[in-house]
Amino acid sequence: MDKAKAIIISTSVAFLVMFTLGGVWNALILEDFYISNSPAILRLPEGFNLGVIALGYFVLALIMGFISAVNMGENPKFVGGFLFGATFGLAATLPLYLILYGRWDFSLSYALVDTAWHFVEQGIGGVVLTSLYFKLYNPGTPAITDK
Prior knowledge:
Strand content: under 5%
Helix content: over 70%
Largest sheet: none
Radius of gyration: 17 Å
Order of helices and strands: HHHHH
Oligomer: single chain
Number of strands: 0
Shape: elongated
Distance between the termini: 14 Å
Structural class: mainly alpha
């Protein structure tokens, strides 16, 4: 399979996995924790904009897919894929939460729990993305083309 198709498919699957994990974690497992520890500006659950949330996860998956395709010359395997995604999740959340915590009145435990969750969530997304990408596209072998 060519590189572009592999990127599109692996990024799309990683998006679906991370978006689903995020929904299960935020809306089922820790919903009460997040609601009780969120800043006062939190919308009521019926006011959440799922389309914008999905867009955020999609942009996250696109950036992760782009970085994978451009910077990974060989398959990082499970641990490398997890560490790639986990580092990305940490970098995407912790600095922002610390900056916001310095200005906004919200729970530091919220920021730390959510950062830890994104470490895991994007770690899993990184495994899915890199495993699938390198299963579909192997940069070490020439692409097979239909003639």
